[in-house]
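Quick start: what a row looks like.
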Amino acid sequence: MLKRATIPCLLTFVILMGCRKGFVSLNTNPDLTTASQINFNYLFTNAQLQTSGNTDGNGYEDWRNNLIYSACMVQHLSSTLSYWDGDKYLYNPTYNSAYWEQNYPNGIANIEEVITHTQNDAANFNLYQMARIFRAFMFQRMTDMYGDCPYSQAGQGVISGTFYPRYDRQQDIYSGLMQELSDAAGKLDSTQPNTAGSADLLYGGSPAAWKKFAFSEMLRLAMRMSKVAPDSAQIWVNRAVQGGVMSVYADNAIIHHEAVTGTPVVNGSGLIFLSNDPNGYRLSETFVNYLRNTADPRLCFLGTVCSDPTNPGDVGDTTTTLQLGEPNGYDPAYCGTAYDLVKAANWPGNANSYSVVNRYTFARLDAPTFFLTAGETQLLLAEAAQRKWITGDPAIYFAAGVTAAMQQLTQQAGAGPSADAINYWLSAHPYNGTLEQINTQYWIAGFMDENECFANWRRSGYPNLIPVNYPGNVTGGAIPRRFTYPQTEASTNTANYNAAVSQLPGGDKMTSRMWWDVP
């Protein structure tokens, strides 16, 4: 695993190369840099950092997509503030499009450059395969957020002169991602020199680790197709299992951040929680109540109660019995509206009595980002076994998934539930044979990887969340199903945008369902 101290060494290059803005700039090179002048290892680093959600050093897309929308929609977080639109299903077009607008001209542009310029370079054979695998992860997230999107022509402006990329159908993107993962993983070669080294923030250039990442990502994609294409999903699940997936928390794909403010090496969500918007949110009542009702030993590592959340030095009290969730769908306390927080059933008399994200673990500038984990992977295998798609006891996969998910908290901040606490919880909450139990645990395991939690909730329908129906919402009181495209696409990439919108039932709306999201 790469040590966190190596990241600042890359700061100068990251800042210089990571600030391309706008879709047009995806296809131009303002610095007129030639390929011979670029270290593509560092572009690989850039792509990884930018995909973690903080391309601008100010938590731009983490704040808008990951927290304001996804975290509130899946009821990990809540907010009474008007600009936290996801809490009440309000529409903010720029917040919806934040991830798209930041990642196409930055992370995706960078990974396309790496792939293009290393594909025929024998000296960087493994780096090329790793970049292909990471590209698949990047596009899985993008298409799961928006649906049809530029894929085959994305990031090709400088490379091939394609300035207005078409939107590929989501089913075609999934097919392409599966094939690329399979091919790249199969070609990784541990006998080749490690030319990625410390430029690979996830695994330090280890082919064995990247192979597990690739097949675990294949499993994630396959399970996403469980309703729309179950036969194909089963085939790919078995290929993933045969290839070898993550099994223990040491396999987790993690970026370790540094508290260097104003740069992309800072954890974007941690920046929001501790600095940019520390009083803008609370943990959701839905989330806290579930953890409390099941005596989950993770609660004290996920929440804290601060007397003054605006003070970053106030780390609060993490005692489990003090944790209290704020209900979704309310206005600020004492504002005098029909949805005034003081009218909530659990109103404690002071909004600061509600929990915020734990400042020892997740709400830190240097908190790590988890891209893909053994906990999630083993829980997906539990579902696959429950569906009879693979052999093995789903109860064993379930226990392995919960164990790895709890153990990963030690990677978060060096502390988590003890082995005895984990075993005790599992003995008190054995696998009950339901997809609800599996996917509810996935919801907990993915805390702070909120875009992924939003995707799996839409796919599985679990946990059973109770929507809010706040005045002015754009969904008729239903939890949204996707993010909308950037409004600039309608004017700058009109024909391709219109073709994509025509494939969406209901058009470019937050309620429109994408290909794999079937009732």
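That is the whole record. Residues 1-6, 8-30 have pLDDT under 50 and may be disordered. Residues 125-146 form the longest helix (22 residues).
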